[in-house]
Amino acid sequence: MGLGVARALLAKGFAVHAHDIVPERQAAAVALGAVGCGSAMEAGRAASVVITVVVDAAQTRAVLFGERGLCGTLARGSTLMMCSTIAPRDSEALADELAGAGISMLDAPISGGPARAHAGTLTVMASGPAAAFTACESVLDAMSAKCFRVSGRAGDGSRMKVVNNMLAAANLAAGCEAMAMASKLGLDLRQVREVVNASSGGSWIFTDRMARALEGDASVHAAARVLAKDVGLFVDTARDLGLPAPMSECAREIFLDTVARGFGEEDDSAVLRRYLEIYGKK
Amino acid sequence: MGLGVARALLAKGFAVHAHDIVPERQAAAVALGAVGCGSAMEAGRAASVVITVVVDAAQTRAVLFGERGLCGTLARGSTLMMCSTIAPRDSEALADELAGAGISMLDAPISGGPARAHAGTLTVMASGPAAAFTACESVLDAMSAKCFRVSGRAGDGSRMKVVNNMLAAANLAAGCEAMAMASKLGLDLRQVREVVNASSGGSWIFTDRMARALEGDASVHAAARVLAKDVGLFVDTARDLGLPAPMSECAREIFLDTVARGFGEEDDSAVLRRYLEIYGKK
Fold first, then answer.
1. Do residues B212 and B221 touch, judged by C-beta distance below 8 A?
2. Mean pLDDT value across chain A
3. Were both Cys, which of A166, A223, B51, B99 would link to B81 (CB 3.0–4.6 Å)?
């Protein structure tokens, strides 16, 4: 996703300084016109707006506060756009810590996947102080088709994202259960996808992931372990509030089982492979 | 749904003979130009193609084989279009019994809800002998935007429908869990709907049902007990095959709980009310 965002910004004429812990991805950004940086700290030196696109809160903290992290160089008055899916309380804590260093934070998770990141047509759900929105305005314009301004408080962007991603996970788990059953019942799976798309069972993630799964596309757009983590954030939020969340819990179990079977680094459409292992073909 | 189908056929110039056990609905069809019939048997006398749109297999059997049922008059060589959501094995059994009486059956469940029935833009997923498709061709054209020809054997239309409706039920149950949590977290629910629509968590039923739930629209488009029955058909199919179906089972439990709380005759978006009873508002 980070590479796609970098590309979208470069295409709109922004000067981008990029750091990725995977050298090949950083090289790809440099090939598109970015200035390569040996560390997050180096990238922070150049920028008034910094975007972090990593997997979770621990990685976000490492990029910010770790060795050679952004906070080593990021100037007072600069703005961090935090684009990862993390627990709302972690987002609030980050915003507080950064505010102490004079850095304002936009809690700005993104949705849409690598292709839409690449095209600059992501959906952003953002919350934070008005000044942070102002500082990020042109960047948000360049990277997204739609930016929802959720509220003035950090945490709410993440709340919105956790709610959305739970639905992505649950809809995908149900979709794979449906497809495995359809396979077992001898239905044509391409037709099932078409029928569901045109009927009351349709969902964005079913259409998107089943296309790849049915074409045997093994490229990883979003690793299964990531959505396992995301739906877990919803369940954790429910647990914090002492509330039941049976659909999310069930989806989490299915994702954890998918990861435990060795599919964690594969595309999350591998949940279908997990189901087919259990169901078998007709 | 039956009234909508009648309207779509009348709008295309078909002569429609209508029977409904609810007198008000039959009167509505008559007001649109249908010939009212005192029983299914009476309707069967006039028609070469008969459409049944009832809730389940028991009702379908009653309409066909019950007192003053269709089979009392339906001529050999006529065709039944069976549009209800029923167990695939029940559909197979019906087709066999009807074949014995010289009546061919199209296993033709419909999706899209009353508004699309009314507009003649339903999705149909149909299976059956080629002659049944030919007999129903102009009727299918008039009532649907898309008719999927699933296979030549009765049962497969129902298999496709059960797979689709399980997804509708699971996506709706997950959607209501997400919305109740969003409410508890203090998010604006209209914005949640908009964000999810534009993001990876979107689904057809979430968009459709949440619009009604958020507007406080109490009209019943599809009763909660119906989707409870439909997702149960998927679970039963899994049980017949000795297979686990955790997402469907979880959705079924939530629908049964919704019905047990007294919401069975209300619109299925009442699953959200069930969740809000448990979660409370913020």
1. yes
2. 96
3. B51
Q: Which residues pair with A104 in a beta bridge?
A: A79
- ipTM passes above 0.90: yes
Closest CA to A198 of B178, B271, B168, B156: B168
In this model, does residue B282 exceed pLDDT 60? no
Query: Which domains, from first to last, does chain B contain?
Result: 2-154 (3.40.50.720), 162-279 (1.10.1040.10)
Residues 230-249 of B with CB under 8 A from A: 234, 237-238, 241, 243-248
Average pLDDT over residues B33-50: 95
Which tens digit of pLDDT belongs to each residue from B124-162?
Answer: 999 999 999 999 999 999 999 999 999 999 999 999 999
Q: Which class for A236: exposed (0-12), middle (13-18), buried (19 or more C-beta within 10 A)? A: middle
Q: Which of A200, A246, A251 sits opposite B168 (nearest CB)?
A: A200
Chain B: give the shortest CA distance to residue A250, in Å.
Answer: 6
Phi/psi for B108 (5° steps) reads -130, 60
How distant is the Cα of B54 from the closest Cα of chain A, in angstroms? 18
For every residue of B132-160, DSSP letters joined together read HHHHHHHHHHHHEEEEEEEESSTTHHHHH
User: Helix or strand or coil: residue A38?
Assistant: coil
Pick from A171, A241, A250: CB nearest B201: A171
The whole-angstrom distance between B255's CA and the closest CA on chain A is 12
The predicted structure's pLDDT at residue A218? 86
Mutation target to probe the A interface, by most A beta carbons within 10 A, among B231, B235, B240, B247 is B247
For residue B251, what is the DSSP state? H
- Is residue A146 scored above 90 in pLDDT? yes
* Test mutation, A116, A127, A177, chain B, max B CBs within 10 A: A177
DSSP state of A152: S
Task: Output the pLDDT for position A138.
Answer: 97
What does the alpha-carbon distance between residue A176 and residue A168 come to, in Å, rounded to a whole number? 12
User: Smallest Cβ distance to B163: which of A167, A182, A241?
Assistant: A182
Asked if the model's pLDDT at residue A282 lies above 60, the reply is no
Longest CA pairwise span in chain B (Å) = 62
Q: Tens of pLDDT along A98-113?
A: 999 999 999 999 999 8
User: Please, where are the H alpha helices in A188-270?
Assistant: 189-197, 204-214, 224-240, 246-258
pLDDT digits (tens, 9 = 90+) for A219-246: 888 899 999 999 999 999 999 999 999 9
Among all residues of chain B, which has the CA nearest to that of A182?
B163
Cα separation, A30 vs B110, whole angstroms:
53
Neighbours of A36 (CB within 10 A): 16
